[in-house]
């Protein structure tokens, strides 16, 4: 049927829908074929939700069949394209909703560029869903590891999320792993900032101060590191060291998590 439909004009495909619906109701291999055909109709007419609905049905209910087909690759293409569209226009609630609807575990094994997962993790984080953000970011980093790629921004984000959910030991393990990588030098200041946060949460104050002091000269994260260090010094009663830093900053300068 797919071969026959592919030779017809897309405008005629609507006539096939009643037959597809009957096949879906019957179940079995006929239903699997109907799901696949319905997904192709959705892709042809740029209906991402329709395509994703039928492709996820195949992945969920016909795993052995879909594992030997191009269904995971098709679902990945549909998901990443729509998620990228939603991310670019800032519709983060719709972005995470579509991710929940379309993403399935088999996609992680065929994903090569995890940028879409970084974006979804950021969307979950912006919505305050930190555990979900961490789960997605872990998958993104796992993809990078599988592809033998280094992305220090991704590792910093992962460590930050570990701190967010109270898993500071794992945050420090992530930082130390990143620091052992040969090209880690440019990322060291950002790694020091998040490591300082983890040390502080573990009540390792001197370690936090040491990390933030090391990051304090960096052009990008230096201001945050200096303020974090000064606030901790003030809390520890070392106000003479803290005041010169804090006097040079406004409330906007200390607006960080």
Describe the structure.
This protein has 257 residues and is mainly α. 73% of the residues lie in helices and 0% in strands. It has 16 helices and no strands. The mean pLDDT is 89.
Salient structural properties:
about 260 residues; mainly alpha; elongated
What's a concise summary of this model?
By secondary structure, this protein is an all-alpha fold. It is 73% helix and 0% strand.
Which structural class do you get from the secondary structure elements? mainly alpha
Largest sheet: none
Q: Quick check: average pLDDT?
A: 89
N-to-C SSE string, H for helix and E for strand: HHHHHHHHHHHHHHHH
Task: Please tally the β strands and state the result.
Answer: 0
Query: Rg from C-alpha positions?
Result: 24 Å
How far apart the termini lie comes to 56 Å
Helix content: over 70%
Q: Give the count of helical stretches.
A: 16
- Strand % is under 5%
Task: Pick out the low-confidence regions.
Answer: none
Q: What is the general shape?
A: elongated
Topology overview:
Layout: H1 2-6, H2 17-26, H3 28-44, H4 48-61, H5 63-67, H6 71-88, H7 92-102, H8 105-110, H9 115-126, H10 130-146, H11 152-164, H12 168-180, H13 188-201, H14 205-215, H15 222-235, H16 239-246
Helix pairs in contact: 2-3, 3-4, 4-6, 6-7, 6-9, 7-9, 9-10, 10-11, 11-12, 11-13, 12-13, 13-14, 14-15, 15-16
């Amino acid at each position: 049927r797919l071969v026959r439909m592919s030779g017809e004009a897309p405008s005629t495909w609507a006539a096939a829908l009643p037959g597809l619906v009957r096949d879906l109701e019957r179940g079995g291999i006929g239903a699997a074929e109907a799901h696949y055909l319905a997904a192709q109709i959705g892709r042809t007419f740029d209906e991402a939700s329709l395509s994703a609905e039928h492709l996820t049905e195949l992945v969920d209910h016909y795993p052995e069949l879909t594992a030997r087909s191009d269904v995971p690759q098709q679902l990945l293409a549909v998901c990443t394209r729509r998620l990228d569209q939603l991310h670019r226009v800032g519709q983060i609630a719709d972005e995470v909703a579509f991710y929940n609807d379309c993403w399935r575990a088999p996609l992680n094994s065929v994903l090569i560029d995890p940028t879409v997962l970084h974006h979804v993790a950021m969307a979950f984080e912006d919505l305050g869903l930190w555990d979900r953000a961490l789960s997605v970011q872990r998958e993104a980093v796992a993809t990078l590891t599988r592809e033998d790629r280094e992305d220090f921004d991704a590792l910093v984000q992962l460590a930050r999320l570990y701190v967010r959910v109270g898993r500071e030991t794992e945050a420090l393990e992530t930082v130390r792993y990143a620091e052992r990588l040969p090209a880690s030098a440019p990322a060291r200041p950002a790694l020091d900032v998040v490591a300082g946060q983890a040390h502080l949460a573990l009540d390792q104050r001197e370690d936090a101060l040491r990390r933030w002091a090391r990051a304090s000269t960096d052009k990008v994260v230096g201001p945050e590191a200096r303020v974090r260090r000064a606030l901790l010094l003030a809390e520890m009663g070392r106000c003479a060291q803290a005041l010169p830093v804090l006097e040079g900053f406004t409330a906007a300068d200390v607006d960080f998590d």
